[in-house]
Specification:
- There is one protein chain.
- By secondary structure, the protein is mainly β.
- The chain contains 1 helix and 11 strands.
- The protein has one helix spanning 142-149, and strands at residues 5-7, 18-26, 34-42, 45-51, 56-63, 66-74, 79-87, 90-95, 98-103, 113-116, 129-136.
- Strand 5 (56-63) and strand 6 form a beta hairpin.
- The chain is globular, with a radius of gyration of 14 Å.
């Protein structure tokens, strides 16, 4: 069975107006949708780091029922460090020390629940090794993100 962790009602631990999600993963289950880290309020407000069935890593921010930021990159290594940082009109995605993309327009959703290695229904388990996960209540600088995700 895959390891997974979830905690509801932790809005005080999740950055509500800005923040950063970081994970280090050993990505072996290619070709399957897998949740890495997911903050959630409802189906209209969430932030996630995920692996897709097309073998990509994805950072997605969804607020008020609309995509605010959506960045992805092909998985190029088994060991992966990824971070998605968010603040109003300031979103960025880093993988293995490299900036994948930015978005300078968008809102930040309010979220209250945190899921690691699984989604809110207990589905899409990571089934890979989640080496570490960190939640920051601030949007780290690009230099900090590059350093944090460097292999």
């Amino acid at each position: 069975a895959a390891d997974s962790v979830s905690k509801t009602g932790v809005s005080s631990l999740i950055g509500q107006s800005e923040g950063t999600l970081f994970a280090e993963v050993k990505a072996r289950s290619l070709g399957e949708n897998r949740r890495i880290m997911f903050t959630y309020q409802d189906g209209n407000n969430f932030i996630m780091l995920t692996m897709t069935n097309t073998n990509t890593l994805r950072f997605l921010v969804f607020a008020g029922g609309s995509i605010q930021a959506d960045m992805s990159t092909p998985i190029s290594a088994e060991n992966v460090k990824l971070a998605g940082a968010y603040k109003a009109n300031d979103f960025v995605f880093y993988v293995n020390g490299v900036q994948i993309g930015t978005d300078t327009s968008g809102s930040v959703p309010t979220t209250s629940d945190l899921y690691l290695g699984v989604d809110l229904a207990g589905a899409l388990p990571l089934s890979d090794e989640l080496k570490q996960a960190l939640v920051f209540k601030t949007r780290l600088t690009n230099a900090e993100l590059a350093s944090l995700t460097q292999l």
